[in-house]
Write a structure and sequence with these properties.
Layout (H helix, E strand, L loop, with lengths): L5 E5 L6 E5 H6 L2 E3 L6 E3 L3 H15 L10
Antiparallel strand pairs: 1-2, 3-4
Length: 69
């Protein structure tokens, strides 16, 4: 559900603006900056864990709601 949301950040070496999706970030451990080529280590374990919990919480929302007067 949230995998297609864009996350913007800057390269820690050259400040090149980088945009990746949450899904991409949670699936990779490193990337190369398109500006300078430096390898950027991605520590996304907390992000992946939070996204898993968020998706589980959304899945637990009742599908049918009864309104009583």
């Amino acid at each position: 559900m949230f995998d297609d949301i864009d996350v913007d950040f800057d390269c820690p070496d050259c400040s090149h603006k980088i945009t990746k999706t949450i899904g991409w970030l949670t699936a990779h451990k490193e990337m190369s900056c398109p500006g300078c080529g430096v390898t950027i280590n991605l520590e996304t374990d907390d992000l992946a864990s939070s996204m898993k919990k968020l998706n589980q919480a959304i899945d637990s929302i009742p599908k049918d709601i009864t309104i009583k007067f």
